[in-house]
């Protein structure tokens, strides 16, 4: 091949002589591999413009491509216009089996994301099932599976954004502290916020700003004292509000609410908790000797949480995972009051208490039992349960 067109030098072809082809084609099929090349969207648009101003044959000769390529690229013109100029593979958007369902799901996502609402995988799957019912799609044909969700996300240029956290490190002198094995209950304080915007949302790829709408009360919180026993029993949540008095509104059954000006679990409230929660647990009135594990710097040294704090090992994660779900459902429902400036008001105390109860109920008793054994707090002292330190719980609640 001699007399290569001028543009070939710019594209890195150079001139290819028959001698070069003869040498490069010494192996079977090597000639075709040597001549085969890919073209980016910018080059294809150059060919399309030439073909439209003259014809397909002249454009093919001028740019050294086959006429069938020119015809195919002209058919893909609209897609190539919107493609990245250096993109070389363009197969067009691949539609799913239920195109109307995909369209309505994406419209829902776009609508909620424009308002800054958080969208999770579960929200999309629930919405898809709802739309499928409206379109009379049989359940046997569409189940909003994880596979469908992944393909739908890929087809529509959607992705998830995540954040990470740092793990704790064990202190060097932790050996002696691990010898304690016979504890009955574990209690821990954890914050529950009125505003819990999820750090993960479905959003278009490539956009730099990912905004999630909230009520603007990310710092407003209550303190929740959670407690559980080695047999899997969960004691009533003890909520401390950051205010001087408890609201007059009726609180849901099964939760205890108190008020403290700074929202802290101070000494008086700890004594109150011992009376109304710990003292009223099953068997508590028998006055038998017992021990509680409280997460305080004088009782659990720094860095020992992963070995002694059952609630942090297996309980707090499912609790804190379920709490934002109820908040997100409430945010997406639109059933909330507005401030005079049109902003969403923070949820009422009673509603937050209901979410806390729901999240606490969702914690599996089996995971609590496993957590005590994993922390080596309730294992049989003969060593027969030592293997539980490395086994995962059956319900998969532990990460």
From TrEMBL:
On the tree of life, the source organism's domain of life is: Eukaryota
Determine if Ubl conjugation is one of this entry's keywords.
no
> The HTH CENPB-type domain covers which part of the protein?
89-162
Any idea which GO molecular function terms this record carries?
DNA binding
- What are the record's GO terms for cellular component? nucleus
Record keywords: DNA-binding included?
yes
**Which InterPro entries does the record cross-reference, listed alphabetically?**
Brinker_DNA-bd, CenT-Element_Derived, DDE_SF_endonuclease_dom, Homeodomain-like_sf, HTH_CenpB_DNA-bd_dom
Keywords in alphabetical order, please. DNA-binding
Tell me what this protein is called.
HTH CENPB-type domain-containing protein
The organism's lineage is: Eukaryota, Metazoa, Chordata, Craniata, Vertebrata
